[in-house]
Structures are given as structure tokens and as C-alpha cells.
Hints:
Order of helices and strands: EEHEHHEHHEHEEHEEHEHHEHEHHHHH
Strand content: 5-15%
Helix content: 40-55%
Distance between the termini: 33 Å
Bound molecules: D-xylulose, cobalt (II) ion
CATH architecture of the largest domain: Alpha-Beta Barrel
CATH superfamily of the largest domain: Divalent-metal-dependent TIM barrel enzymes
Number of domains: 2
Low-confidence stretches: none
CATH class of the largest domain: Alpha Beta
Amino acid sequence: MALIGNREYYKGIGDINFEGKDSSNPLAFKFYDPNLVVAGKTLREHFKFAVAYWHSFCGQGTDPFGLPTQSFLWDSSKDPLQAAKDKADAAFEFITKMGFEYFCFHDFDLIQEGSTMLESEKRLLYISDYISEKQKKSGVKVLWGTANCFANPIYMNGAATNPEFNILARAGAQVKLALDTTIALNGENYVFWGGREGYMSLLNTDMKRELDHLGQFLTISRDYARSQGFKGTFFIEPKPMEPTKHQYDFDTATAIGFLKEYGLEKDFKINIEVNHATLAQHTFQHELTVAASSGMLGSIDANRGDYQNGWDTDQFPNNLYETTEAMLVFLQSGGLQGGGVNFDAKIRRNSTDIDDIFHAHIGGADNFARAIINADKILSSSKYLELFENRYKTFDSGKGKEFENGKLNLKDLYDIALKSKDYKLTSGKQEMFENILNQFI
Length: 441
Ligand code: XUL
Ligand code: CO
């Protein structure tokens, strides 16, 4: 580990290495061997693990009932420029000690927002110069950048879907600066999570007009980024609720329908977050499947929810059964298009030791590694695929194939049905499929 800043923030913690499943060292990977080749690629290439700047270096354990529990040494300076540099030093120390290559950020995670847009712009330029230098020395890259158009009270009625034009314009200015920063840091992608894009009550909301505004806003954001040479992919990150009662990007199917309606489907793909999927009453694997079916599986925000409560707990992912099912979709669809696996997750409020954030990321990476190894074995050395495909074999030839090829009309189906006598009840064999999964976990 090259210490890139001036001081060590995570004192006493060295590089996190792969030591194998029998290691008793809690600060080592047991399953995530970045160089292990699975299904033709190394785990490092499959996942492109990223650290979320906001949770790991800004979030301090607050909740709606309590003040911060985690105090960070890098927050001690009163000067916002110095504080931002200290935070960047801590971030790069953490990312490189983890052996990860990527991070994701919101504009004002990197540096405190200024009191005017011009001041914010100056600050962002200042910190992106500093971070850029650190990137050159360390090889750490940006998976995606985004703008925080939801925390400032100015956005209480929405950002791109605000009923007042001047607020929409302000959000536009912020997205422009966030795009400039992402481009300056060679960001590979750009995310739109519509934190305040939704409604609280339809009584005061013109939904059609707001959606048209959002479509137009995304179109001109894309055009601006392309005019500045940005070649990466834009991602929409669906979420059904929280903070608004109803978010416009409710789930993957809704977001894809929206992108197609506004002609954005070529430049945009989907960033799927596990806990957002479950809040929409879907499974993570459902959302991945919907995106992959449209060729729009772009990136993943890895975390998990809580089975008993209904909000976005953003816990680190450790559900091996869920992640293995997800990796079946991931491998069969050829992986992520441009994106990676960003740990959009936070340690618990009462996890207050400096090493807790390491345990959290080690666990998340190990969980994904085990899951992809399992999924690969299921696909390559069990009868899973054969059984799966067998369910559809009546469409592989004969009249079934003709139907798939658009050669049959409804009257043809009627004629075929008249001639059919025996309809046998074919088992879906769900329990057997579940047992195959368990056998490999
Ligand atoms: C909120 C969420 C965001 C986005 C980026 O639930 O997931 O952190 O990932 O704005
Ligand atoms: Co997210």
C-alpha cells in the first residue's frame, strides 16, 4: 500500500489480502481472490468493486432520532478546502488498502457545497484537481459520479420535476458541474437517482408535465455530456419510494418504459440497487432479469434490506442465497454493461471502530465472490440449464417454433386446440431447482 496522503487515518490496518477460506484473520478476504478466473474473467474484472464516498467517508451514523456516532479525523478542519483534501486522503487510503480500484461520488460528497453556484464550481474544480493527482499516483478510478439534487431544502418540491422553472434550472446547473467533475476525473459512467423526482400528493401534482420535464432534462444533460466528450453510459437508478411517497423511477420496468418513451434508451442503462428492488416488492434477481432482458443491465448498487422493516437500511450484502441467484442472471446475461458493483451500503450506527468499515467491505466482496463461484458451477456442472431449457422445448420446433417466428395467427391456435386431446400437467419442479441451488452453496 502506498500511503498517498500525508497522514494515516486507518492506523494499524494494513492491506487486505486474499488468504483463503481457512484463514482466521478477520481482516483478510476468504473468498474474494481478485485474480481468480471464473467464466473467462477475473473476479476483479467481473465486479469492478467500488466504494461509495457518501456512506464510507461522509455518513457518520446519524438516523432520524440521533446525532452522529462516528467522528472522522478527516472532518476536523474548519476550512472546507482542507477538509475535502483530508477526506480524499482518507478515501484513497481506504480504497487502496482494500485493493479496490473504484469509487462513486455525489458532487458535494467531495467537498462542502458553496453558498453560491460559482463558489461551488470553484470548490469542485479545486478538489477534482487534487483527486486527479491522487488517481494518477494510485490508479484508483471513478465508476460513476452523480449530483446530489435531493438534500438541499431548495429541492423539497423536486429537482428536474419541480413545479418551478428556476429550481429546475438550478438542478441543471448542478448536474452540469457534476458532469464536468465526472469527466475531469475520467469517470466511466454517470448516475441519475431521482431522489426528489416523484410526488407526495396527486392533488397538487401534474404528473404528465413533470415526467415530460424529466425526459427533457435528461435529454439535455446527455447532450451536454456528449458535447464535452463523455463516452460513458448514463444510468437511471430506480427506487419506488423514500424520500417521496411515489418516485417516478419506481422500478426497472418503469424506468425502461420511461427511457423508451423519451428516446433515451441508447445512452441510458439501469443501475440496480438490491434494497430498492425489495422496497418495490421485487427480488434483486427480478430487477436484474428485467434489465438484462432489454439489454440494459448497466451496474449494481450492492446492499441488502431488512426482512422485517420497510425502509432503505442499506446494509452490506451478506445474503448468499439471494446473491447466488442474482449471479445466475449476471453470468447468463454476460455481466454488467459499463458498470460495476458499488457498495452503496453503510455500517450500522453502533459500528464505531475504525476497522468496522473494512469488515463490511470484506464481507460484501466475499459474498459476491462466493455467489459467482457457485453460480458458475451451477451453470457449468449441474443439470440446471438443461432442466431450465427443457421447460420451453415445445417452442423449439414444430408449431411452437412457428408461433415464436410470428407465423401463426389466433385462428391457427384455435385449429390446433381443436385437434389437441390430452393436456398433461407438467411439473414446474421448483423444489428440485431450489435443491440444485442449495447443493452448490
Ligand atoms: C439512495 C441511493 C443513492 C444513489 C445515488 O437510496 O441509492 O445513494 O445511489 O444518489
Ligand atoms: Co444507490
